[in-house]
Specification:
- This protein is an alpha/beta fold.
- The protein folds into two domains: about 10-90 and about 210-390 and about 425-480, Alpha-Beta Barrel (TIM Barrel), CATH 3.20.20; about 100-210, CBS-domain, CATH 3.10.580.10.
- About 35% of the residues lie in helices and about 20% in strands.
- The protein has an eight-stranded parallel β-barrel with strand order 4-5-12-13-14-15-16-17, surrounded by seven helices. Strands 6-7-8-9 form a four-stranded mixed beta sheet.
- The structure holds xanthosine-5'-monophosphate.
- Xanthosine-5'-monophosphate (XMP) binds near residues 301, 307, 363, 364 and 393.
C-alpha cells in the first residue's frame, strides 16, 4: 500500500535562516573551506556541473583556480574527456615531469618549429641517455640567421646553467628564481639525468591564485564524470591515467544497483588512489547505500535543477532543502560529505544548502552563461545569451546518439522517441562574463550569510542554523517590492 510521509517537502524559497548573535567583526574572518569527499577539502564549496554546456577543461581550470572544482562532463568520447582532464592537470604544473627535449644535433630551424608548434619558449637539450647538455631558448635563436646551424652551437651549455635536485621545495625554487633572475630551472639527478623542469611562469601563476584547489604536486584538481554501463570502466581507466583526482558517477537515479556496482568496481580497482563521488539520490537510504558501497561523497538532488523536468515527467523528486536535510543526517552517520546538486539561483540558496547540511554545492545554470562554459554567445533581440541544456533534454540525448551510431540516418529514425523520454529542456541563459566573477559574487553572499549566523566555519554555519518557514506573502516581502526597479 502506498503511504505518505508525515513531513512536508520544502524548497529553498520556503524558508529563511534566522539571524544569530555574531562574534564576527569582518566578513574576511569567515572561512569557506569545506569537505568535498572523505579526503579532499576545497577552499570554496562549489562544483561546476558535469554538463556539456557547463564544464570542459576551461571551466574546470577556472573553478580550481578559484578554490572550487569542475566536473568534466562525460558526453564525449573517453579519449577526448581524458585529454580535457590532462589539460587541467597541465595548466599549472609546478614540476613539469616530462619537459620537451631535443638532441644537440637538431637544426635551429627544426627547434624553432617545435617551439612554435608547442607554444613554449625553451627546449632542454639532452643526449641519448637523457643527460642534460644545455638549454635552447627563444632568445638564443631569435637573431640566428642561419637556420641550418645546430642546436649544440647556439644553446646555453650545461656548465652555465643553474639546476636543482629532485625533491626541491616550491619555496626553495622560488628563492633560486629570485636570486638568479632566471626563467627555467631544470631538475637533474646525481648522474646528470634530466628529471623535470620548473618555470618561473608556473610559480607566478601559483601565487596569483592562493585559494586554488591543488594536488600534492601542486597541480590543479580535476574531477570527471562517468556513467554506469559496463563499457564505462574503460573511460574510468583513461581518466585516472590522465590524472583525474575524482571520478563522479553521474546518473539520474543514483540509488540503483548499477550505480552501487560501479562504485564497488572502481573502488576495487583503485582503492584510495581516486575518490569516487556518486549520485544523484534524494533519500537517507540512498546516501547510506552509496556510502556503504564505498562512495567518498554522495550527490543529492532529484529534479531541483533549472532545466530539469523529471518531477513533471516522472512525478518523482524531493524538494531540495528537505532532501539535503534528510540526507545530511545519514551522511553524518556514515561520515561522508554530501553535495547539494541543482536549484541554486542566488547566493542565498547556497547559504541555505550548506546550512541544511550539504558540504558543497553543484551549480549549472549560474555558470552556463559565462565565458568559460562551452559554446558561443548568441544574439537574441539585441541581448547576448548562451545555450544551456539539461543532459536529459531531447537535443542532448540526440547528440549523444549521433556520436554512438555509425549512421546518422538510423539515429534520426528514432529521433521522435527522444521527445517522449526527455527529462530536461534547452534554454537561453544571459551571457554573464567571467566565471570567476560569478564565483566571487556567490562567495561574498556566503560570507555575508555566515556572518549573520555568527559562523566562522561551514561547520558552525550548520550548527547555528535555524530555519523559519515563510508564507508566500513572506516570500514576497523578501524580494524587492513596492518600488519601480531602475
Ligand atoms: P542548476 O539548477 O544549477 O542544476 O541548473 C544543475 C543540475 O541539474 C541536473 N540536470 C538535470 N536534471 N534533467 C534533470 O532532471 C536533465 O536533463 C538535467 N541535466 C542536468 C544535474 O544534476 C545538474 O548538476
Amino acid at each position: 500500500m502506498a503511504r505518505i510521509l508525515d513531513y512536508v517537502g520544502l524548497s529553498f524559497d520556503d524558508v529563511l535562516l534566522v539571524p544569530r548573535r555574531s562574534p564576527i567583526r569582518s566578513r574576511k574572518e569567515v572561512i569557506t573551506r569545506s569537505r568535498l569527499t572523505r579526503r579532499i577539502w576545497l577552499n570554496i564549496p562549489i562544483l561546476s556541473a558535469a554538463m556539456d554546456s557547463v564544464t570542459e577543461s576551461r571551466m574546470a581550470v577556472t573553478m580550481a583556480r578559484e578554490g572550487g572544482i569542475g566536473v568534466i562532463h562525460r558526453f564525449m568520447p573517453p579519449e577526448r574527456q581524458a585529454e580535457e582532464v590532462a589539460k587541467v592537470k597541465r595548466a599549472e604544473n609546478i614540476v613539469i615531469e616530462n619537459p620537451m627535449t631535443i638532441s644537440p644535433e637538431t637544426t635551429v630551424e627544426e627547434a624553432k618549429k617545435i617551439m612554435k608548434a608547442n607554444g613554449i619558449s625553451g627546449l632542454l637539450v639532452v643526449d641519448a641517455d637523457n643527460k642534460l647538455l644545455g638549454i635552447l631558448t627563444r632568445r638564443d635563436v631569435v637573431f640566428e640567421d642561419s637556420d641550418r646551424k645546430l642546436v649544440k652551437d647556439c644553446m646555453t651549455p650545461r656548465k652555465d646553467l643553474i639546476t636543482a635536485s629532485p625533491g626541491i621545495s616550491i619555496d626553495e625554487a622560488r628563492e633560486i628564481f629570485r636570486k638568479n633572475k632566471i626563467e627555467k630551472l631544470p631538475i637533474v639527478d646525481e648522474n646528470g639525468r634530466l628529471k623535470g623542469l620548473i618555470t618561473s611562469a608556473d610559480l607566478i601563476k601559483r601565487e596569483a591564485y592562493p585559494n586554488a584547489s591543488r594536488d600534492s604536486r601542486g597541480r590543479l584538481l580535476a574531477a570527471a564524470a562517468v556513467g554506469v554501463r559496463e563499457r564505462e570502466i574503460e573511460r574510468v581507466k583513461l581518466l585516472v591515467e590522465a590524472g583525474a583526482d575524482i571520478i563522479v558517477i553521474d546518473v539520474a537515479h543514483g540509488h540503483s544497483e548499477m550505480c552501487i556496482e560501479m562504485i564497488k568496481k572502481i573502488k576495487k580497482m583503485y582503492g584510495d588512489e581516486v575518490d569516487v563521488i556518486a549520485g544523484n539520490v534524494a533519500t537517507p537510504e540512498g546516501v547510506e547505500d552509496l556510502a556503504s558501497a564505498g562512495a567518498d561523497a554522495v550527490k543529492v538532488g532529484i529534479g531541483p535543477g533549472s532545466v530539469c523536468t523529471t518531477r513533471i515527467v516522472a512525478g518523482v523528486g524531493v524538494p531540495q532543502l528537505t532532501a539535503v536535510m534528510k540526507c545530511s543526517e545519514a551522511a553524518e552517520k556514515m561520515d561522508v560529505p554530501i553535495i547539494a546538486d541543482g536549484g541554486i539561483r542566488e547566493s542565498g540558496d547556497l547559504v541555505k544548502a550548506l546550512a541544511a547540511g550539504a558540504s558543497t554545492v553543484m551549480i549549472g545554470r549560474l555558470l552556463a552563461g559565462t565565458d568559460e562554459s562551452p559554446g558561443t554567445v548568441v544574439l537574441k533581440n539585441g541581448r547576448r545569451y548562451k545555450i544551456y541544456r539539461g543532459m536529459a533534454s531531447m537535443y542532448a540525448m540526440l547528440g549523444r546518439e549521433f556520436r554512438l551510431r555509425e549512421n546518422e540516418a538510423e539515429a534520426l529514425l528514432d529521433a521522435s522517441e527522444y521527445s517522449y523520454y526527455a527529462e530536461g529542456v534547452e534554454a537561453y541563459v544571459p551571457y554573464t562574463g567571467s566565471a570567476a566573477d560569478v564565483i566571487r559574487r556567490l562567495v561574498a553572499g556566503l560570507r555575508s550569510g555566515m556572518s549573520y549566523l555568527g559562523a566562522r566555519t561551514i561547520d558552525e554555519l550548520r550548527k547555528n542554523a535555524i530555519f523559519i518557514r515563510v508564507t508566500e506573502l513572506g516570500y514576497r516581502e523578501s524580494t524587492p517590492h513596492d518600488v519601480e526597479l531602475v
